[in-house]
Amino acid sequence: MANDDNFKKVISHAKEYGYVFQSSEIYDGLSAVYDYAQNGVELKNNIREYWWKAMVQMHDNIVGIDAAIFMHPTTWKASGHVDAFNDPLIDNKDSKKRYRADVLVEDYCLKIEVKINKEVAKAAKRFGDAFNKDEFLSTNGRVLGYQEKIDSVLKRLGQSLEKEDLADVKALIEELEIADPLTGSKNWTDVKQFNLMFGTKLGASAEHATDLYLRPETAQGIFVNFLNVQKTGRMKIPFGIAQTGKAFRNEIVARQFIFRMREFEQMEMQFFIKPGTQKEWFEYWKDARLKWHESLGLGSENYRFHDHEKLAHYADAATDIEFNFPFGFKELEGIHSRTDFDLKQHEEYSGKKLQYFDPEENESYTPYVLETSIGLDRMFLAVFSNALQEEDLENGTTRTVLKLPAVLAPTKAAIFPLVKKDGLPEIAKQIVEDLKWDFNITYDEKDAVGRRYRRQDAVGTPFCITVDHDTLDDNSVTIRHRDTMEQKRVKIEDLKALIKAEVEMKYWLQRMF
Questions:
Q1: Listed residues 193, 217, 247: the one ending a domain
Q2: Does residue 211 sit in the same domain as residue 181?
Q3: What residues of the chain score a pLDDT lower than 70?
Q4: How far is residue 153's CA from residue 293's CA, in Å, rounded to a whole number?
Q5: Residue numbering of the annotated binding site for substrate
């Protein structure tokens, strides 16, 4: 229940402080579609730039593209999306509500995981500093029983989905006595497959229009441009192609705020490699991507790898980097060894060769592909929900603070005049003019300074800079750090270097390179 309350606070805070709004809210909204508000768009842009700099600019063998959302319809036949881009759907006959069958089972396992966490919390309280969590998890009989149950359920689910044995998926739901979350009813229909692609038309008249799809992923735009990029960029294997962009899926159950939406943004990189080297590159990108996440300081304990029980027919390895969201560990990024499936499929359907001539081997071959794919919206939610905290202060009060990584914060510093007279606003506005060329800066002169501090804490601004009467004499200001609330006097001419040292991407990314 506490987690539900925390998540409600995340959603409420996102709206109240200009991060995320319900789309078309004045018309009662549109389900699972959201707008990024004035602070949200800045945070989202900063996350995208942080990924792009690490993925593209810091690698001399990775380049970027921006492929169109509309693609030739045969693209999706070749990729398998027309025939196989499905989710298992199940309806409750009493509530008339529709659910993803696999999500119902996964939520069942998540409830067992909550029981494990409660056992860990009780033991930690009982044993205090002597408590060894890893030893407890590996030896406690009750916890081992819970974990065995989770493993067996997920394994059976994965095997059933892989074999497309939808009857067994329904049987599993019934055996586990999974009920409709809203009504408690266990009166289920058979499980059916549901295609997730949105269809549309291209053409001036209905009779001559071409059936198209809104792309359900960004990867195919990379694959069909493989040879164009390789030749024009004179790229040598191994090399990667990255892009960010919108994708669209008609999700059966879109929920959990921006975690699962019908219109979302992906950040993907396809890494083309020599066949036979996929195992080492899979391990390389697992390590590299986890380092990128950990460089943001969200807590290494909030990440874990989850290897896929069910592999796509073309894949020979797949894992997810999961993050501990307010509703539990869920997928944040996928790392997949896709073999040569994609390029060969597009070769077959297009009739064009998509091979690489290797000058060292003096032969042509179809490269294998290692994929890293992260949802930008999910990354936004991970950062935002992790940052939102309520702190008890020494004076007996509390503060709500959004401890965003400074490198990602929408606004880097807020400039305050202590009072709206005596020339202090003029000095403060001149500081804004000087700093805004390098950072996103805001000016605030309303209310007492303490209230302004609280306002900037809640919006996530790392620094507050106050111009007071002493500034007139010593050309110094008070700078306050959001996380520690520490205040110190610094010269105005030193502000740029001080802020830069805390917010520049270079200093954050050096943790991983």
A1: 193
A2: no
A3: 1-3, 253-254
A4: 29
A5: 100, 217, 264-268, 371-375
